[in-house]
Amino acid sequence: LHSRMTKEIRDYILEICNGTETHVCVLLQGSSTYGIEACFQTLVPLDSRVLIIENGFYGRRLKEVAEASGFDVTVLE
Predict the structure, then answer these.
(1) Which residues lie below 8 Å from residue 77, measured CB to CB, with a gap of 6+?
(2) Average pLDDT score over the chain
(3) pLDDT value at position 2?
(4) How far apart are CA 53 and CA 60, in angstroms?
(5) How far is CA 77 from CA 27, 36, 71, 74, in A?
(6) How many Cα atoms are found within 13 Å in the side-chain-facing hemisphere of 51?
């Protein structure tokens, strides 16, 4: 049941973004920090400058993750 449901979710995500022929969907299971780090590491080139809008705890956490990942970080409070 679990694997069928996971496949249905992955297929649906690909369908709504018109990616069924060209992309693969991988679901990440973890904390929000895990998801943020995964996005930084896979979507943002390492030599990028990253703008973080810091307006509370989550903005500070985002800044910490970006800096720990080696990005040039600019913060807007």
Answers:
(1) 54, 55
(2) 92
(3) 82
(4) 9
(5) 32, 19, 18, 10
(6) 3
Reduced to 3 states (helix: H, G, I; strand: E, B; else coil), residue 64 is helix
Encode pLDDT of 5-40 as tens digits. 999 999 999 999 999 999 999 888 888 889 889 989
Cα–Cα distances in Å, from 52 out to 58, 66, 68? 10, 9, 14
| DSSP conformation class of 61 | H
CA atoms within 13 A on the CB side of 55: 1
Max Cα separation, the chain? 45
Query: Does residue 74 carry a pLDDT above 90?
Result: yes
Asked if 36 and 42 count as a contact pair (C-beta separation under 8 A), the reply is: no
For residue 43 the two structure tokens come to 């979507």
Six-digit token string for 40: 């930084």
